[in-house]
Protein: 2-methylcitrate dehydratase
Organism: Thalassobaculum fulvum
Amino acid sequence: MATVLERFGAFSAGLPAAGLDDRVRHHARRAVIDWFAATLPGGVLPPATLVAKALADQVGQGGATLLPAGTPAGGQAAALINGTAAHTVEFDDIYRDGLYHPGAPTIAAALAAAELAGADGETLLAGVVAGYEVSNRIAVAVNPRHYDFWHTTATVGCFGAAAAAAVVFGLDDRQTSHALATVTTMAAGLQQAFLADAMSKPLHSGRAAEAGLLAARLAAEGVTGALDALEGPRGFAVAMSRDTVIDWDAVTADLGADWTITRMTFKNHAACGHVHAAVDAVRALADEHGLGEADVERIEVGSYAKSKEICGNPTPATVFEAKFSLPYCVGAALVLGSVRRAAFEDAAMADPAVRSVAARVVHTVDPDCQAAFPKARSARVAVVTRDGRRLERFAPTRKGDPDNPLTDADLADKFRELAEPVLGPARAAELLASLQGLGGTRPVRDLMAGAALAEAAE
């Protein structure tokens, strides 16, 4: 009987010939648009800029491109740096059921592979879909226990990157299976990185992209892996999900029939996804009742345990910590009106009104929210006003989740907001139009040139 990785390999290798229907292709384009929106601003910030300096011997020449600089680089260096950039501003997509950000590693690897192979847009879309379908299912299978210690984007992201690169390179089912097997033993990335003001978390995404691309390139040359490395007695699932019992037949049964890429969350706030429901609820109450900082006695937020565990810091000192602070994000939502990039600039971080509201947030675990997790990321919020009112709001999901999605227009607005400060309005508009029409025979190299700073393209 075929191993799980062999089943995933056969599915992925057969995807280009099977073709994508218009609905799946549309959702794949949305994922790529969202990836560029998150990556362009991340590419001009540490740690991506520092990684490029550290790898000076691999940057300045090669068949792939760093964004948004437009600098050529070797394939693995480009996957690593662009994959890191994609996860830096905390605006990349989420597969809710899998506690996982698939786009950052998967699309970084797919783009690097496409440039190396001279692939076209349609091939890129097939690779992206394969990466999402393989890795999203693995993420659901091993979680939530996996997420106790491991960062899913770092670990399962390796599978998404490998599957995507294998499809773009045109590997057959055997080669693709071995690419997945090889990358299985490379997968790592600890949750401890969330708990420190460090650059490790975005590096997790880049490292997964790099590992996936490398595994696919090795498989193309005949390098083999342990094909039972996922479900074997000393394999990935047992080692990294403890006592979880997984029905792998169920995991793979609906490949090619149920498309997980059509159920992505595209973030509406530039912070950890575990704060979004609370931000949505507070913002709705503020709009409905005309609330400002002076009106609030305290804000009570009940959510699920992971929200408090990962985002419970009431006094963040750095931008990284603020993005993982529910109290800070709630304060920014009330005072500034949104939790977009401006909420993490120096002026906002030092704003006494934001800090004052954050200090009045009481963050607890709500039993109903906990019971619904991870299928739903909810929050129950009560604003107690200084004139004695108690205003309540339950957010059963987040704006941007598949049951409350960003529209295509919303996604385009998000892209413009993030891309225009980097590329300028005209160049950002041209890139958005290219991404909205992604597919066909246009080379991916042309797309990457259009995503670079104007001076790099001259």
Q: What stands out?
A: The chain has a mean pLDDT of 96.
